Amino acid sequence: MPVSPRGSFDRRRFLTASAGAAATATLSGCAASVDSGNGSGGGGKTITVMTVGEEWDAKTKKSLEKTLGITIRVITYDVTKLNALLSAKTPPDLVRGVGATDTPYFAARGLMTDLDPYIAKSKLLRPTDIAPANDVWRFDGNKQGAGPRYGLARDYSQDCMFWYRADMFEEAGLELPSATEPLSMDEWLDLGKRLTARRLGKVKVYGLSANGMGVMSQLMWMTASAGGSLFADDTATVDFSSPEARKALQWYMDYAKADIGPSLVNPNPDGWDGPTYQAGRMAMSCGGFWFGSVIAGDGKLSEVSRFAPAPQLGSHRVSPIFSGTGFWIPKDAKNKEEAWKLFELHFGGGPAEERAAAGWGMPPLNSLRSKMPQKTAMQKQAYAAQMKELPYFTVLPVSPYAQMDALNGVLSKVLPDAVKSDRAVGKVADALNSRMNEQLDRGKELVG
Amino acid sequence: MSTDQLTGRNAPSVTPPSRVPPGSRRASGLRSRRMRRAGAFYVFTGPWLLGFLALTAYPLGYALWLSFTNSDGLTSHPRFVGLDNYREVFTDQDTLASLARTGLFTAVTVPLTIIAGLFLAVLVNQPIRARGVFRTLIYLPAVVPPVGAALTFKLIFDRDSGSANGLLDMLGVNGVTWLADPYARYVLIMLTLWGTGNVMIISLAGLQDIPRELHDAALVDGASQWQSFTRVTLPLLSPVLFFQVVTGIIATLQTFAPLLISLDPTPQGVSAVPESNNLIMINVFTQYFANSRYGYASALLWVLFLFIMAVTVLVFRLSKGAVFYSVDPEEKKANSRTLGGK
Fold first, then answer.
1. Which of A79, A267, A447 sits opposite B289 (nearest CB)?
2. How many domains is chain A partitioned into structurally?
């Protein structure tokens, strides 16, 4: 540090040096945020994976590292951190994501790697073996469901199918829903009302939880089932004013008003149905096949639980996927080859077989279906119902111009008040159109 | 005369100390003392300065730049939009409503917290048995991490399985949907009051600093307990209370607690925050991470930053004449001038 002729530090120089040091600290801090995860060290290159903590147990991770000759550093998934890393062009090498909602958003912004060239060369992942559900990870630049593959689902479920408690149906003297023929939405709502138990303004047992993977996706599904579409063909606008969309909106408002299950008006404090269903306080839950693993862990619960097809609002039987959680490789990833090797093994090797056998959703490859659990009566019934439902899968494209969180945010601003004040569905539709299309316009301007 | 003196060069190391004029020695000592003091200053402030530059100045500057763009945080070519985002702040009904809610929330909770904290401090300052236990018990909730407290509140106030409605149930009263509108705001206020132990502990320290003789003198002069409290205690405690008002306002304007008692404190879950708890920071979080409007959200943060500064200045102005320092800062300044200060 230079000393001035006056015998004291030069403050200006000190501040300049401090700023430099601060910048260095900031930049190294950014790098540290990528590398701060736990890597056990398998030698070779280190690849960074952003995922949830329980993606691999220590043994599986070690085995993957040994097989591939790499070191895997896991950093906990955090969407805010992911955005920061992506915009700084220092993304992780492999990222966990929700195929159905993330793909158009990130792909349209040029942030994802096209995996088709890798899949074409792969021995573990054959295009013909990849389940159609993985199409939610495709985006052709305009629409989801076609074009290059940007990821694969580690597992998936047709998220509008539902689980129910047969014992509660029997107790209420109600006929059990069919495992193959869908209920109408009106029948579903009626059953929910009959199965709800109340006391002094409190719901002791919810008859039906119809929230699925979020209200926006539920409305997309119902509108499609009625023969319409919430999004325009180019997904640049929504239209809640069509007869089909209004019918869907009306159904959800009736459901929320009936107060027979968690809704935007009375959200579930747990944030999801699992604990409430397990506690015997919910008769029907709109959760896909993966929810069966939650149930299978409880012997008594699995004895009384059954799986049923996605209900229908109109004449169209559609059973979409709104999650398809899996992985993708960012375009700016530094170790794409190694990331791909891990991806390939994770989706087509031992870990994929283990996941299929655990029953946490449907496996991404058709060839792995035989590994799915079919030991107990519940597992057999769920498997049979799921297999019958597969042909009704369809991709319901979401817009690349706004995140689903933003659209769900609009619904949660508009609907609670509309339900409480009994607002006419037409007015609600207008409010939703105006707010959502404003969001979509802004996104379109950026993406171009 | 030495060579050095002849050439005019300084060579103190070779000059015998006895031959250095006394004035020059004093100047050299003064210089090295100044240098030591400056060194100590930089050593002690350096870490803070680094933190300030990296974690405050840089983000503030970056946010300022973002606020003039339509950035979504991901697209590499955001457009410069000038003051559009700032204009929108003052026309966006959602933002104006969230600002108004935040103002109201601050106006209610800051006085409530300070009054409750002061009341508790006065109570536990009394010569009662086991007052140490009471002090600990009252302070204990302030030690609980906010996330833990929020989770507990969620469980207590759940409509269908919470103990609050369980209590009402026992009384034969209908349950209330506490975590939704319009009751959610009251739960949030209760959650804020939960941390009142912090205010209590600072007020207690202030109370203990007041000399007992002043109260005794007031009583001898015929003052009642209430008069002694309002005329002696409160004026002497006013600097402590003023500090708490200022820090309380700043913290409350930035409160993030509504998200903690929402169902899922993530960009997905932020949509579940009831409208009555949709305070300005919730709006900022939503704009950043759910709506991906980095430019607009940054403008919101800058407006909030300037708003907090303006409110703080206003509070300082209004406090003149209401806050009594045991040593008047102005007087101290004047004294230091007369006593040879610079």
1. A79
2. 2
- Whether the CB of B18 is below 8 Å from some CB of chain A: the reply is no
Higher local confidence (pLDDT), A26 or A99: A99
Cβ pair A416:B180 closer than 8 A: yes
What's the CA gap between B271 and A233, in Å, rounded? 27
Of B54, B155, B275, nearest to A22 by CB-CB distance is B54
Q: How many CB pairs under 8 A join A and B?
A: 144
Q: Are residues A349 and A369 in the same domain?
A: yes
Running DSSP on this structure, what letter comes out for residue A331? T
A26 vs B contacts (CB less than 8 Å): 54, 58
Q: Is residue A219 part of a domain?
A: yes
Q: Cβ contact (<8 Å) for B75 and A446? A: yes
Q: Is B180 on the interface with A (CB under 8 A)?
A: yes
B143 lies in which domain range?
92-338
Residue A127 falls within a domain, yes or no?
yes
Q: Is residue B127 part of a domain?
A: yes
In a domain, A167, yes or no: yes
A345/A439 same-domain check: no
* Neighbouring C-beta atoms of residue B210, cutoff 10 Å: 16
**Mean pLDDT, residues B170-193 taken together:** 86
Range of the domain at A412: 162-319+401-447
Residue B264 pLDDT class (50, 70, 90 cuts): low
Question: Are A408 and B271 within 8 A, CB to CB?
Answer: yes
Instruction: Please report the pLDDT score of residue A272 as a whole number.
Output: 85
Tokens of B182: 């319009």
Band the pLDDT of B268: cuts 50, 70, 90: low
H runs (alpha helix) in chain B:
3-7, 22-52, 58-66, 84-89, 93-124, 131-143, 146-156, 163-170, 184-193, 197-208, 212-220, 225-228, 234-253, 257-260, 280-285, 294-319, 329-338
Pairing relation of β-strands A71-76 and A46-51? parallel
Same domain, A314 and A329: no
State how far the Cα of B258 lies from the Cα of B255, in Å rounded to an integer.
8
B277 touches A: beta carbon within 8 Å:
no
Q: Looking at residue B186, which CATH number applies to its domain? A: 1.10.3720.10
User: What confidence tens digit (pLDDT) does each residue in B214-256 have?
Assistant: 989 999 999 998 999 999 999 999 999 999 999 999 999 988 7
Asked if the model's pLDDT at residue B265 lies above 60, the reply is no
Domain count, chain B: 1
Has the ipTM of the complex gone over 0.90? no
The pLDDT of residue A16 is 46
Assigned domain for B80 exists: no
What would the pLDDT profile of A281-298 be if each residue is shown by its tens digit? 999 999 899 999 889 888
Mean pLDDT of chain B: 84
Which of B54, B181, B263 minimises the CB distance to A26?
Answer: B54
In this structure, what CATH number is given to the domain that contains residue A294? Answer: 3.40.190.10
Max distance between CA atoms of chain A, in angstroms, equals 96
